[in-house]
């Protein structure tokens, strides 16, 4: 979720974001700035409360708005309980798709030489977190051990705010061996322009990404 900021009245006057100029790009930027914040109130952060849909041994926390009425909270919690199996609370809850329905294969250049990256070493406390996360992935069937792989990519541990470690993979060598996508990536300027006139922009995110 992205909250677009509200301009400071002391920082920006009626001149717009940038001083008056004949540059058409700057003029367009000033117009967009005025459109974004015309008759807008500063965004406020909604207060939420945590509700455990599970038990102490298997917590399933959700967050709902604090300013809902008692009946609205009860109705919302009741609705979530009715469809509790729709949500993924851990890796085991995500069974995946049947390979008969869809299967992903890497389009690797047949002339590309496989790369086995040299093993990296991590601090003991980081290694413990990595082993714990990899065990979860193996137990849930997300990954499996390969005895004689042609390609070997190192793990890149990324610390989270909650103290845990997110497991990423250094796929640079593998990416170099795959053809580039023909479609262009989103243009940053266009994405920023699309936020004008809105207080919030929502994104769909993965379960553990």
From TrEMBL:
It comes from Asparagus officinalis. Signal peptide: none annotated. This is Reverse transcriptase domain-containing protein.
